[in-house]
Design brief:
The protein is α/β, with parallel strands linked by helices. The protein contains 18 helices and 14 strands. It folds into four domains: about 130 residues, Rossmann fold; about 170 residues, Rossmann fold (3-Layer(aba) Sandwich); about 70 residues, Helicase, Ruva Protein, domain 3; about 60 residues, Arc Repressor Mutant, subunit A (Orthogonal Bundle), CATH 1.10.10. Helix 2 runs parallel beside helix 3.
Length: about 450
């Protein structure tokens, strides 16, 4: 390893009461690019632990005063991110097993083989470095998300997010987010994740409607080697397991089959699960956030959703209203989307003209924020700017541009009116004749004849 300076070297503690062993380890590790602190007993090492913050401790089992196994437990409480390799000249299988159960990552026996020690330390440092990179990436994602996340300007969403902020103060959240498709349920779930104590953990999305019923159990809970015909030889972690110390987001939970609802309920009750084909129960902590666009109460009454699971996921309920219920947010989000999309395209738009704003407000937006975003994105692709106009906003696929403006207020001969109308449609799709013909329901030849009558 190559480093710019001594202060930047990764730190290792060597805790051993045999001075010769400690000196040999110190020399070998420093030659390999580490900064090494040596201690003859655990007490002094524990005092320096929060100050030096080593990524690794090489810890002898037999020490004066506090022994190695007891010191191992204390290290995990003081600096949980520090890994510990145990060392012993009187190793027994029982001691090694106990050390590994208590959290040691490795067990080395004396006399030490220095090349093997260096190799294992290198693996430990690589794991530490990758873990730091993942943590830094997740922190950057958190900051970027919170910086660009839009709540809205109306009282309805302000209330929802205030409640979400209160809930996010605690770990192991269990919450249900309801609302129509496209309202931003996943965005609210991510907001909860990035504001809670598990923000540095993973955000794992399970689309309950997209995974086939035959696969969803093994995808959720994982499986052991040989659990079924196509199972991997080494087994596989499930999505639940991957969400440890993070957030499990169960999108469209109303689509789960009844048998799987039973198994999910068991996990929700005690945070324990068993892989498919396995016998060992595993416990983990994570947030569990569910979402649905269906009325789960009605599904419970019809026997389609288990009432006990419904009550368990409904600890905290957050409802995201549709855009139709909060029209005051339409222009707020339209402007926010315009700014983001234009920035991504490297273009500059000043906003929407008055007729475009009125057109946006008049729409009911059954697709909610998702539909609004798509409309703004398409407008940015086609419009010349600097203001987006009403004709730039194609609200529905196949929509005829009905708002033709004052040019058609006067009565015109049919041929001229048709020509003007076609030109407006063609302008709205950026001059794409094939797209204009498709929207108008005519052939390209008919479109050309309408644009140039008599030709």
């Amino acid at each position: 390893m190559i480093y710019k300076g001594w202060a930047s070297l990764p730190v290792i503690f060597v805790v051993d009461d045999e001075p010769l062993v400690a000196a040999v380890l110190k020399t070998a590790l420093e030659k390999s690019g580490y900064r090494v602190r040596v201690f003859g007993d655990a007490e002094q090492a524990l005092l320096q632990l929060p100050v030096q913050n080593p990524f690794l401790v090489l810890l002898d089992v037999h020490l004066p005063g506090i022994n190695g196994l007891e010191a191992l437990g204390r290290i995990q409480k003081i600096t949980p991110q520090t890994e510990v390799m145990m060392i012993s000249g009187y190793a027994t299988i029982d001691v090694a097993v106990e050390a590994m159960k208590k959290g040691a990552v490795d067990f080395l026996t004396k006399p030490l083989q220095l090349p093997e020690v260096i190799s294992r330390v290198e693996r430990s440092y690589e794991t530490h470095r990758l873990r730091d990179e993942v943590a830094a990436l997740r922190d950057r994602q958190r900051q970027e998300f919170l910086a660009r996340h839009h709540i809205g300007s109306g009282a309805a969403m302000t209330t929802v997010y205030h409640m979400a902020g209160q809930v996010a103060k605690f770990p192991n959240i269990i919450a249900l987010i309801t609302g129509a498709s496209g309202t931003g349920k996943e965005m609210l779930a991510r907001y909860l994740h990035f504001r809670c104590p598990y923000a540095q953990g993973p955000f794992v999305v399970v689309n309950c409607a997209a995974i086939s019923p035959e696969l969803i159990e093994s995808e959720l809970f994982g499986y052991e080697a040989g659990a079924f015909t196509d199972a991997l030889t080494e087994g596989k972690k499930g999505l639940i397991e991957r969400a440890e110390l993070g957030t499990l987001f169960l999108d469209e939970i109303g689509e789960l089959s009844t048998p799987l609802q039973v198994k999910l309920l068991r996990f929700l009750q005690d945070r324990s699960f068993t892989r498919v084909g396995g016998t060992k129960s595993q416990h983990l902590d994570c947030n569990i956030i569910s979402s649905t666009n269906r009325r789960l109460e009605s599904m419970v009454e019809q026997g389609l959703f288990r009432p006990d699971l419904y009550y368990r996921i409904n600890v905290i309920r957050l409802h995201v209203p549709s855009l139709k219920e909060r029209p005051e947010d339409i222009l707020f989000f339209a402007k926010a989307f315009l700014s983001e999309i234009a920035q991504g395209m490297g273009r500059i738009y000043q906003g929407f003209d008055e007729r475009a704003q009125q057109k946006l407000i008049r729409q009911e937006w059954p697709g909610n924020l998702r539909e609004l975003h798509n409309v703004i994105e398409r407008a940015c692709l086609l419009a010349e700017g600097p203001l987006l106009t009403a004709s730039d906003l194609v609200i529905r696929s196949g929509e005829m541009i009905a708002d033709l403006g004052p040019a058609l207020d006067a009565l015109l001969p049919m041929e001229q009116a048709m020509s003007l109308y076609v030109r407006r449609v063609l302008e709205a799709v950026g001059g794409n004749k094939s797209e204009a013909a498709r929207l108008l329901g005519i052939s390209r030849n008919r479109l050309k004849r309408t644009l140039n009558p008599g030709s």
